[in-house]
Amino acid sequence: MSHTAHIPSHRKPRRSASKLAVRAGVAGGVLSTLAMAGTASASPSEPVAETTLEMPVLNLDLAAEVASAVTTAAENTRSAAVEGELNAQEESALSGAAAEAKQAKEAAQKKADEEKKAKEEADRKAEAERASRTAARNSLQNTSGSGSTSGSQQGVGTVTAPATGSAAAIVNFARAQVGKAYVMGGTGPSSFDCSGLVQAAYRQAGISLPRMSQAQSSSGTSVSLSALQPGDILYWGSRGSAYHVAIYVGGGKFVGAQNPSTGIVERSLSYDKPTGAVRVL
Predict the structure, then answer these.
(1) What Å distances lie between residue 234 and 47, 48, 142, 217, 256, CA to CA?
(2) What is the pTM of this model?
(3) Is 210 part of any domain?
(4) In this structure, are 222 and 122 located in the same domain?
(5) Residue 66 falls within a domain, yes or no?
(6) What total of structural domains would you count in the chain?
(7) The last residue of a domain, from among 143, 166, 196
(8) What is the pLDDT at residue 148?
(9) What mean pLDDT is reported for the chain?
(10) Mean pLDDT of the region 158-164
(11) How far, in Å, CA of 155 to CA of 159, rounded?
């Protein structure tokens, strides 16, 4: 035989603890029976009776118990997973509702701030207009009270000569629009806004002006309100950032598209004294 050949092992396989316990119980029962039989054979006066021993029945249904335990654990795990998912969905819904409420609050606050800012701006403009009218009235009263007017002196709205040429074309067109409607963005022929009227009037004289009042107040050269001539552009606000313009038509009056309630009107300078004037002609 080769020295590398497999030699069968004479060691017996180990038995499980449960099998050993069963065998021990059986052996114990057999030994007890033999002992009782020996005792009986030692007494000749008593007949030997045949005894039948019942072996204990072992119920080791471990597979069923394990399967039941696994099923219970699986059910508990599934229940916990479902509950966790429901909790997560509830938390997500609450977070979403809170975020939407916050956005709605921020939007409402922003709108309120914008409305407040617009109202403050409108109030500021109205106050500026009232202050200008008050100053104009005071100036007119002071001028009238002084009594120092002469042919060589020029008060507000005084001109040295009537409108002629291009100035006459501008003035005549402006006066022809009196009574028409004021419409924001209007450029004629049935309605105008303030800068639309000035632009259209100067177009009659072949002069092209910018569309907006801010740019119109920067056109030409600045002139004093005490030296106005027909056709000069009057403006309210700062030069280059005026918020209203009109046309001086002579005799201390102007024509302008004032607002939606009055439309295009001819008014005295004392009605609403302008801030300044420019001469383009």
Answers:
(1) 153, 150, 22, 8, 9
(2) 0.46
(3) yes
(4) no
(5) no
(6) 2
(7) 143
(8) 35
(9) 76
(10) 57
(11) 9
Residue 247 near residue 167, CB atoms below 8 Å: no
Length of the chain: 281
Strand 181-182 and strand 191-192: the pairing is parallel
Q: What is the CATH number of the domain that holds 268?
A: 3.90.1720.10
Residue 255's Cα: distance from chain center in Å? 44
Q: Both 226 and 268 in a single domain?
A: yes
- Backbone angles phi and psi of 272, in degrees to 5: -160, 90
Do 122 and 200 lie in one domain? The reply is no
Reduce the DSSP state of residue 26 to 3 states and report it: helix
Pair (139, 249) in one structural domain? no
Distance CA 166, CA 231 (A): 8
Q: In this predicted model, what pLDDT tens digit does every residue of 89-120 receive, in sequence order? A: 878 788 788 888 888 888 888 888 888 877 77
Give the SS3 label for residue 236.
Answer: strand
Token duo for residue 138: 């005071």
Please compute the mean of the pLDDT values over residues 213-232 and round it to a whole number: 95
> Residue 182: its pLDDT value, please?
97
- Do 225 and 124 lie in one domain? The reply is no
Are the C-beta atoms of residues 270 and 202 closer than 8 Å to each other? no
Q: Tell me what pLDDT residue 5 has.
A: 52
Whether 276 has a pLDDT exceeding 80, the answer reads yes
Structure tokens at 141: 């009263």
Domain region containing 236: 157-279
Residues 189 and 249 in one domain: yes
Confidence at residue 211, expressed as pLDDT on a 0 to 100 scale: 95
